[in-house]
Protein: DUF3175 domain-containing protein
Organism: Microbulbifer thermotolerans
Amino acid sequence: MGRLIVAEIKPGNWSHKVAETSDALDLEPGVFTLEDPRAIARSLRRSAERSRRRKTDPFRSAMSMLNYYINRAGCKLPEERRRHLEAAKDELRALYGRPRRR
């Protein structure tokens, strides 16, 4: 029988590699540090509409990047930041004329 070889992934490296090499968006610097959810949504929209690396429509690309950031931060994301970013999802939906989630 053959041996199973598992590549070792160092903590903190895989998400950086995903952001660098995937068909992700080229984000404006500091977009996730903005206080205003509408400003976050507008920045993500601009990035999604300018990007030539995305594989899907701008709305889905922008929402995916926002979810990616929230999920990667996990429990280390302060509650206030999480509220701003969750509100940015609603703002993003509004910018694209999509219904709000309940």
Observations:
- Residues 4-9 have pLDDT under 50 and may be disordered.
- The radius of gyration is 16 Å.
